[in-house]
Each structure stands twice: as structure tokens, then as C-alpha cells.
Amino acid sequence: MSSPTPSGGDGRTVVHLVRHGLVENPDGVLYGRLPDYHLSELGREMAATTAQFLSDRDVTHLRCSPLERAQESMAPIAAVYPIPVTIDGRVIEAQNHLEGQHVSLGGPAMRDPKNWWLFRNPLKPSWGEPYTEIVARMRLALRDAALAADGHEAIVVSHQLPIWMARCDAEGRRLVHDPRKRECALSSVTSFTFLDGRITSVAYTSPAKALIPGVKSKKFVAGA
């Protein structure tokens, strides 16, 4: 999709959903909402790259997930736009019952009999927060960010699955999906244009694409 278009004083409001940068995760676990997962050195470089990409925009509102990696990704953006950052629990990572485990197709978490019940309904999904609930909270957070930045632009730092759910909702896509096919790279920007309170377009770009390690993920449930 195309890069985001700046608001131009015509009543449009743009809300940019930014995914955080790469996290230091030496054990390779699904960290989800677990505390003390911070950006790696490369992740901080990714965040700075995206902040630079967004540095010449008409931003009047900043909003962020309460998790450390999101706030660390917001830091270089807030340095560009010295305005208050609203911490919003509605844009937090999706809740997941597999936190702290190694989650991959055919991996330890899926082979453990204690977890089998969690995989009973991938359409919901049964291993964590239902897609419909993620959509509901992200819809409200997007609306409030758009209201706060009325006629201007807002930046919201969140996480892969909530951002993807917001985009699926806005574009009328099915919520059930293959996690490996989400278009929501590290430090990417998914931009929602509002006109008269309604989302009229969605744009996607990946400013830090060149910094992303070229390793194909086999994650089944992304914890990012």
C-alpha cells in the first residue's frame, strides 16, 4: 500500500498506528504482556528510523501502549513532538495464555498435552484474547485518538496483532488469519485517514524495513 498522506486542513484526521521495534528476547519465548521485555539495540535503531520518517507531520497527539517496548519505541517520536503521551491500555498487546513458552508450528508449546485444550478453536482464538474483543478496544482507541487530533495527525504505538485487527476491521477483512501473513513489520506505520468520523482509507509503510533481520519466522502465535 502507499505511504501515509499528511492531513491538509480539509477536515481529514490521520491516525498512525506504529508497531514497536525489535525486542531483546534471547530465549525466543512468546512474551506477550510479560514485563521487562525491552527493545534491543537494533530495535532502538528501528524506532529512531520510524521517528525520523514521521518527523515532518502535523502531529498534535501521541498515544502509547503501557508495555516497555512500546514506550521505548515512542521515546524518539516524543523527542520530535514534545507533547504529552497518553498511555492507553486499550492498545496493549493481545492477552495470550501461552506467554513465556516457545510457540512455533509443531514446537514445544503445541506438543505439550497441557496446552492442547488451548488450541481447540483457532477461529476465536481459544489460546488468548478473542479477535472481536481486540477489534472493539482498538476501534475505541482509534476513535479517541482521532478526536484528540481532530483535523491533524496522531501517532499511536502499539503491537502487531492489535494493529492488524484494527486494519482488518477498517478494510472489512476476515479476522481469522494466518499470523505469518500479517502485513505489520517491526516499526511499521499503518495509517488510518478519518473524514467526518469515518475511516476512508488505510495506508501501510515500513520505514525500518532495511533493518529487519532477514529470518523467516515460524511463529504460530506472534507475541509482538
Automatic annotation (TrEMBL):
SMART domains for the chain: PGAM
CDD domains to which the protein is assigned, alphabetical: HP_PGM_like
SUPFAM superfamilies xrefs: Phosphoglycerate mutase-like
Gene3D superfamilies (UniProt xref): Phosphoglycerate mutase-like (3.40.50.1240)
The protein, known as: Histidine phosphatase family protein
